[in-house]
Structures are given as structure tokens and as C-alpha cells.
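Box 3.1. Reading complex inputs
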Amino acid sequence: MRTIPKEDNGKTSDPRITKGATEMENFTITRRDFLKASAVTGAVAALYSSDMFPLKGLAEAKESAAGVGEVKVLKSVCRSCHGRQGCWALVHVRDGRVVKVEGDPECHYSLGTLCAMGAASLQILYNPMRLKYPMKRVGARGEGKWQRISWDEAIDTISKKWLDIREKYGPEFTVGIGGTGRPNDSSWANMFTTNLTPNFLDAGIVCYCCCTWVAETIGVVTRGQAVTFAGPSVDDSKLIMSVGSTNLGYGTGEATVKAMYWDGIIKENKKLIDVDPNFERNEASKADIFLPIRPGTDSALYLGMLNVIIAEDLYDKEFLREWTTGPFLVRIDPTKPLLGAGEDPGPLLTEADIKPDGKPTRYMVWDEVTKSLKYWDATLMPPPPPPAPPSPTYVLKWEVSPIKPALFGTYKVKLKDGREVECKPAWQILWDRVKEWTPVKASEITWIRADKIHEAAKLYATTKPATILTGVAIDHHISHTQTCRLLSILNAITGNLEYERLSASVPGLKGIPALFPRAEFTPEMHKKRIGAAKYPMFAKKMFFSEMLAPDAFIEAMLIGKPYKPKAISAWTGGGLWVPNQKEAFKAYKEAEFIFSVDQFMTPIAAISDIVLPANTWLEKDDVKSGENILKVCQKAAEPLWESKSDGQILIDLSRALGLAGIALPFKTYAEAVAERIKGTGYTWEELQKKDHVYPPPSEYPVARHKLGHWRRGVGIYADRQPGFPTPTGKLEIYSVKLKEWGYDPIYLHYVEPPESPYSTPKLAKEYPLILTTGKRSPFLFHSQHREVPWLRELFPAPLLDINPETADKLGIKDKDWVWIETPRGRVRHVAHLTNGTHPRVVQAYQHNWYYPEKPETPENPKGVFDSNINVLMDHVRTDPVSGNSVHRGLLCKVYKAVEGAPEGVWTKPEQFKPWLPQPPTGS
Amino acid sequence: MGTKVIGLNLKDNTMHVYRGEQRVVKQVEDPVEVIKTEASGEGAYAEKKILDLISSEPAYRLVLYKILEFCETPRSATEVGQEVRSFPEMKTAIHSPVILLGWLEEVGSIERIVVDKEEERWQTTEAGKKVAELEAPAKRLLELLAQEPVYHDIYIQVLQFCQSPRARTEIESLLEGNPVMEQPKVFPTFFIQRLEDVGALEWVDKHWWTTEAGKGVLG
């Protein structure tokens, strides 16, 4: 711990502590400091300053600095959100009490800034609403009657219940539910759950992870990031295509980092294509081409772009021939020659089809050099004898060299049984399906001007290097799979997947193991995952994280098929993201036993049988690794009340359950962290002294993107074979896995949203507006921070962006409370009139809402049904491959809520005063 | 011939009524509306409250039923406590019998009566008795068997098999490969838990046993 000597007038002699740090001696920072320190700059603050959201403010709880001890400054990493990197922070501590959190100027990507959520960390730490002790309910479920119990009783009760359920029914009868990344602790839920059961209902399915699974059908697996991240970095790119509004926006507190990227775009004169239904000031205002898309129609836009790129010959044919399944011949089913998009065109032609002794793993192409059939050999070789590692080894080579596989054409092929069949390269089939998607057709679907689609396609394909940045918007449709695959193909065929000299964000730190390894389930156990029969992709080990499709979970709980789980472990305010919240809560309540690990009484904690108090990032020693750097998070305050770190709770539970290999041999979280950092070669104390970063800044590894980075052996795959990690070794435009699971292996077809002016015109008469959701507030992270006074003051209630023209017709004025209604129900938001929103679209602004100021009731725990936009979602109609529901692009109606705000909801600054940190005892 | 509502099952939105002497189960859309318009006043409302409690406590559904049945004869707190603790469902319960009695008392399904001027006893109320009738395992098992006829034979097969105590894995082996479980996909535990839910199977000494109610349908 470094100590900064105090000088007169509260100034410090540390030259690095410059920005507002001289006022750090107060027991809490002032509200003004907070706004300054948290990068809530004028423009942003102005956006939220209004009668509804006044910045006049709470009384400033400033305390005299006189007569108190010296201030120590700890270097740490802010974990107020679960940003992948975490912003480096300076934590000011006096007399054992945290008095200020601010950005660390040495952080190479935040340059000393910190977002509002980070700056407000001590209002989380010292919040009187925190869960303080383990408790068990004694009233009816959700009634709010609790009894304090000891940690021993809590752990003993939970473990006995868990062991009993496992024995009676099997391990799959327990389900984990994850929520916000509250610091990075949703991973604890993952660790705990996926070592016990294949059933984990986590927000990852609507937030990046599902892209990873779809990526496996293509072959570019990106360690948990969206598949399109496989392109060049923003720094290296000359063009950025931004999809969705959260790239700069406020997805995580790391927005400051992203803001710098966007500044860079302007300064370096990069091109920007912005795809977003709404004109957002941070992106659309800077864009060269703004594509205001009708929500839910993304795949139509990318089909239109692909059409232009193929028709105008703007793609990399060499890459396509050499590294994709594009030239592989497909046997057209003669009984179904007119099969359309979305339908299986037939199997790949293999050597086994044409020769008696042919191999089914030799895929045939038409060689334009020899004018004959040749094969690509993707045969899996027998495992090498020990002691060689048992990693799979493939042949992966062409039959002849040179070779020029045909991408287009129709070929008659004689099979070994004498029949003659028609075959086409997969790329020809793709083109057959894409050629109707002219910009004009795409325009009719997406409501984007055809000339803009054409212009965007040409600009994207001809500006190199170009990258595609996606927020989570692409996950929120029932055509999520097509969208991910289309963007991946656009990225690959324009030469951006294999662009030389570009940096990449993988492969991560070497020698630093995951904190707790995941269990290796048997294939039988994977098949028992709820939804595995409906979504075959789920019946296997997931690359990144084990998860459930929400519809399958709800069906299991409410209908009981394929079985009905008995118990739930809910971590980090779990489950508020699940579509159709009322059905979801009905489902949660069907569990015989629920325990929650949380910092506050969240809605799911309120319906639990046992709640366990988790502490904050300021109360524990920890490490954060991300972007190739490991950073030490230092404990700044002793854990308050009886709270424990999520990691310690995981260890205590795991030990009680006898889970060897997970928690054992650790008894404490500190031991687990010490084990993890062994790979650095330093002890905890040494890392603290080394400015808390590994490796030191001068040695930061920068992975350089090379040709073949995504191919086996060159990048993150270990078998040292050239090629992608797919059954064919190619980037799979025709996906062998999708075919095996019973889907169209090309899978690029457009699907109209299940509720829309075109698919359900009758419904559209009653619900005439298109609702999109998921826009983020810079002051709140997912379901978090509703208890933090200054943050709630800035953003007390969720907003609904609505066009003034539309609002006028509906008799709605700015800041009116309005009802948003769909066939599933209705919730209240505050109208925010903006010309940036299309007159036929409304946009809900900040999701997963609940009101901590409201009571615990069985019917509406903590007001979870008042404003959580996910009440309105349909959980039944899903993406057939990935299980995603529609969170963007459903029909709704909006009308003024004459009742005003939901009963008991706070909207005035002074109402939040009870949640302000209390002065330290005796000070 | 008048209609008398004797109960509402909020789990499946069914209303149980007497039409004259005949007992009928009707599907209703909105149970609350039924209470307002059709129920014969306070009695049905009391039953709704009890059913609400029972349906919101899946861990204790059978236990609460058993208490109601046990207290149809007035019982001392000690007797109730001993009896409840003997239920296999209470082995890993997190709530004590006292708390469960409190819940039942709060919704008017049991009441304290004074016997012999001094001794206090617990007794099931009239509304509680009606709910106990609706919740009786024998009745619920028959409903289960009729609900999805495709599973009828498997339920019977499991009940027969568990007349001797069986480990879960034995039941899984018994049903392995049964094509009825494929479309829609269900697992052997689906049948175990449904039979347990209605009180036809119970978990004792780490084995599944067919209960008396379960044996009742085996004839």
C-alpha cells in the first residue's frame, strides 16, 4: 500500500494525483466532484438534466477533513461493471474507510478517466440497503419476512438440499441463473453451476456468448467475443461498420475507452458506417453512411450488401477457394430441385459417393485446371501413440496442386452406383439465394434507402482494412444465426479476416489458469441439458459457457418437460433479462428451493429461500485479467457486516458439496488467487509492489494478426495444422455442423420478425409501433446501481425514445409517464422525445429495471413488473438454432399513463437520501 | 338444481363444483373473476387463499396437505410437530413445523381450539377440509393418469416397480429406450417427479417407494 503524504490544504505531493484528488479527504466525495471525476461531461449531463431528472441534487454529504488521518492510495481495478478490461482506479482510503475512487492516469486506455458508476463505487460499498447477513425466509415466498441465520447454517442448509436433489433426481435438477456481470462475478455463478449441472440460464445468451456458439458453425471461435470481432482492430482499420448502438454507448463503464476510439475515427479520418434504427449522437452524427434500419431486419441488410459485393465482383476469390467450403460440391436432391433459402439443399459430395473405396471425409470440388473432380482431404487421423498429446490430427490437403476449385456452375456427377446427379458448389447455391436480394428488395424490408445500401456495400468492400463492430443488438432477433453468419462471411470474403499486420485481441495471457476449472460432463449429461432436444447445438459442450435457451427453461419449469428442475442458485440479480418476465418469474417460483448470492435484495433474491450477502470489489483482494494484462485489485476496506466475496462463497459451498477439483484444496479465496498468479512468477506481495500489473507496461504483449491467425496451429489452436477448427478445416460457408443438427447448412435466409407490419398486419393495427430495446444508460449497468443515490438521481426511471411527431399524435409530451404495451403485458417508462427515432419506432432505454424502494411482495417483487421492458417480450418464438428471442423488433402500442409513475417509485433527488453513505461511527 | 363451488385449483385454472349431487371439474379462464361472480361467498374465498398458499410452496405441497388431513382430528402442537417431522418430505426442509402451521393458520385452513378449557389443539377448518379433499393423493393420481394417456402405462410400470424400494438409477434402467419418451423428449425422472408430486411415490432411505395412494391404483 502506498501512502501519499498530506500537505497543507489537503493537497498531495503525488504528481500523479491531479484530477480532483485534493478533495479526497472527505468521507465521501462531493456530488460536484463525482460529476467531474466520473466523466459525466456537459453534453451527457445536459441530456439527462430536466425537470424529471434535475441535477440540482441531493444534499452534499461533505464532512470536514480536519483532525483525521492520512490518506492512502491503493492502485486497483474498478469492477463496478464487468467490463472486459476493467478501468484502473486509484482508491483513496483514510482510517480504514474508502473516501474516494477515481481513474488512474497510468491506465493506458482510460488515461485517468472513470465513469459515473466507478466514481460512485463507495455509494455501493457503504449503501445501507446492502444485504448484510445470511437470511432465510420465514414468511410465504416473496412476502419479505426474513430471519437472520449464521453462515454455517446457510451453507449447511444449501449443501444438504443440493446433495439430496442430486441423489433423488440427478444433478441436472439444479439450475443456475446468472444476471448482470456485477463486477465479474456472474462467472462465479457459471463456475458453481456448471460444475454441478449442465443447466445454467445466463444472460450470455442475449449478450455475446451466443455469437460464439454460432461462430463454431463458421469456424472462427473468438473466445467469447462476437464472431465479427475476428476482424482487424479499430486502431488498425480504415473503416468501421458499427452495428447497434452500444459500441460507444454505455455498454460498460469502459465507454471511455470506446469514446477514444471514436475520437480516433474523427482525427484519423476513418470511415464510419453506422447501422442503427436510431440516430445516436455518438455514432450516427459522425458516420459517413448512416443506415437507419427497421429493428429486427438485420439479415436483410447484409443479404443486400452481400448481393452487391458478389454482383460487382468485390470479394476475395482466392481466399474463398482456398479457405472456405464455398467450392465444395453439394449434391442437389433431384426430388427437391427448387428448394429455397432456409432449406437443406443436400449433402456435400464426398469421395465415398463416387468410389467404392472412397472416404466420406474427402470433399469433392470441380477443378478448373484439370476440368475434373478433385478432393480436399479432411480425414481425422488415428491418435498418435503416447506420450504424444491426444489432440486431433487431420490430413487437410488438396488431392493435387495447383488446383483452382470452381465457385460457380452446375456439374453432372456419376455416383458409384451408376446414378448421375447434379452438383453445385456451395457458393453457387449461396449466390442462387442471394441474387434476389438486390438493394431495392433489401430496402423494402429494412426501410433503408436502396442507394445507401449499395453505397455502404461498396465502401465496406473497397476500404481495407475494415472492421465490423457489433453490440449485442444482433443477438436479439430470431434471425440471430443468419445475422452472425452473414457478418462473418462479409468479414471473411472482403479480405478482412486474413488481413496482414493487424492486431488482435486474442490469445490472452499465457500461463494464467482460469480460477476454477469447469467440470467435464459426459456426452449423456450434455444431452440432458434442458432444450438439448429442441436446440441440438445445446447438446454439446459449449466453447465458452454452458447456457440454456430461456424458452426451454420456462417450458421445463411450467410444463415439466423434459423434466422440472427442483432448485435454483441465483447469482448477481439473476434472471431479469429473461424474455417475458411474468412467465419467467412464474417459472422461478416453481422451484422448490432458491438461494441467491447478491449485494442487494434484488427481485429474485426476494423470492428466494436463502440469501447470501456478497461484498463489493472494494472489500476483497482479487486479480483481473483481460486484454493480455493481469491487474491486481486490492482490498480497500474490510468486508462490511457479514458479507463475503463471491469467490469465497463459491469455495465454501463447493467444499460443503465435496466438489473435488473445483474449490479443494483451497480454503480461502486468497489461496485460490495465489494459485492463479503463480504463472506470473510473482507472489501477491510482489505484484502489489510491481505497480500491480503483470506484465509491466513495457512488456505488454501485443498479438499481431498474421495471415492464418484463425487457422489451426497458427493462432489459438494447438494441433499445428493449417486450417480452421471445423470438421472440414475450412471456414464453413456450408456448415457441416448445421447439417448434422438438421438445419439448412448454408443458413443465410431472411426471416421477418414474428410480429411486424408485414408478418402480422392485423396485430399491427392494434399495436402499430415497432419496439426496440436495450439502449444503455451511462449511469446504470444492466440491473445494477438502482440503489445508488447519485446514479438514480441522474437516471431515476427508464426512458422511451419517441419521435415528437408520433408523440404529438398520441397526446404525449416529453417526460410524461407512458404505458408501453404488447400482447404479453404493459410497463411504464418516461417519454423522451427525440427526432433521432423513426416515427414508427420507439426505443426503450435501459433494461432489467426494478425499484429497490418498493416493497417485497409475492405479486411484484421490488416492482420488477412495473418497468422492466422484458415483461413485454415473447419467449416462445425463437431463433431455431441459438434459441434467442426477439428483444428488438416487436410490435407495441404506447399511450400516456394518466396514473403517472408506478406507485411507490422515487423520482425526486431528496427521496434517495436514505441510501446515502452514513458517516463512519465515531467520526 | 343449484351450483356450489367447492374449490379452485389455481395451478391448472380448474373450478370444482357440485351440481346437485354431481361433482364437476370445470376449466375457467380467470379464477379471480369466478370468485367474484360464481363463488358462494366467503367459503370459496377462504379455499382460494389456501390453494394460493399451497400452489406457491412447491416444496411443501404434500406436507401442507398432510397437515390438513392430520388435523381433521384436533391435535396438540406436540403431536403435530412429531407427525410433520416424520414426513419424508421434511428431511431437508428449511422451515420448521411451527412455521408451516403459522402459514396454514394465516390463510384460515387450520385453527386453534381449546379443549377441556385449557389444552390448545390444532384443527382443520371447513375450508381446509375442502382443500384437503382436492389435494388428496389418490384423487390427484387419478387425474395425473387421465391427463396424458400416452404416459399412463409408464406411470403404472413405475408404481409397480417401486412396490419394492428402488434407486433412481434402477428406474432409469427400467425405462431406458422407451420410445414414448422421445417425442416430446422426457427423461425417466419426469415420471418419478410427477408421481412424487401427487403423492404416489416417496423418497425414503435413498430409495423410491410406492405410497399407499400409489398402490391404490394398481388393483
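In summary: Residues 74 and 123 of chain B are 5 Å apart (CA to CA).
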